[in-house]
Design brief:
Distance between the termini: 89 Å
Number of helices: 8
Mean pLDDT: 75
Strand order of the largest sheet: 2-1-3-4-5
Number of strands: 5
Low-confidence stretches: 75-85, 115-123
Radius of gyration: 36 Å
Largest sheet: 5 strands, parallel
Helix content: 40-55%
Shape: rod-shaped
Order of helices and strands: EHEHHEHHEEHHH
Strand content: 5-15%
């Protein structure tokens, strides 16, 4: 069964300004593409830093049900000064969680905000940190999200199948360890002579003490 609604985690590097607005417009342009956006809001980040939990916990909560993570790879990726500070460090946390923080891998899709920007000119995360890079075009963006999400789901199903195919180790004591002793005991019993004489004597004593009723006339 395929994914019906794609849950997308939007990296903190998108900010709150025009870059994020362009992304939402591109996602909404494809009416056949159903999605839900998950992201860490600035107020959530501030609240997490002021509590016993750090940003790792806040990002984990926002990302936990996501199928794909989107991050900008064009200059400038974050046009909101309120969220620009520390976004690179936050991306490292997001990337680590996406790759190994959950039971299944969350693929990372890099999105170029400006056509013609190559890898040397981009100011976002390193290209090696993402699974794929696409332009900010509605059809290309939707197709890439679907493909990466379905590939990750297939990887998870394959991992589950391999785990189920592995033999389950018996937690009970090893029965093979007691077999030699049991075999020795059986051989000892088989080698012992049967006391036929004692058995017959006991049988005759039983017959002698038994009262046999006389047949009726």
């Amino acid at each position: 069964m395929g994914i019906g609604v794609y849950r997308i985690y939007v990296s903190y590097a998108w900010g709150q300004g025009p870059a994020l607005a362009k992304l939402v417009a591109a996602l909404d342009a494809n009416t056949a593409f159903l999605y839900r956006m998950d992201r860490l809001l600035p107020e959530d980040m501030i609240a997490s830093l002021g509590s016993d939990n750090d940003e790792l916990g806040a990002i984990r909560v926002a990302m936990t049900q996501s199928h794909v993570m989107l991050t900008p790879v064009a200059s400038p990726p974050n046009d909101d000064p309120a969220t620009a500070t520390g976004s690179a460090d936050i991306f490292v946390v997001e990337r680590n969680l996406a790759s190994s923080g959950f039971r299944r891998r969350i693929p990372i899709l890099g999105v170029r905000l400006e056509a013609g920007v190559d890898g040397d000119d981009q100011k976002g995360p390193p290209i090696a940190s993402v699974d794929r890079i696409v332009e900010l075009a509605p059809s290309e963006l939707a197709c890439a999200i679907q493909e990466l999400a379905e590939e990750a789901a297939a990887e998870r199903r394959q991992a589950n199948a391999i785990a189920l195919a592995r033999p389950v180790r018996d937690a009970r004591p090893d029965r093979n360890a007691t077999q030699p002793a049991s075999r020795v005991a059986s051989e000892t019993l088989a080698a012992r002579a049967i006391p036929v004489g004692e058995i017959m004597e006991a049988y005759h004593r039983l017959v002698a003490t038994r009262t046999i009723p006389k047949p009726s006339q």
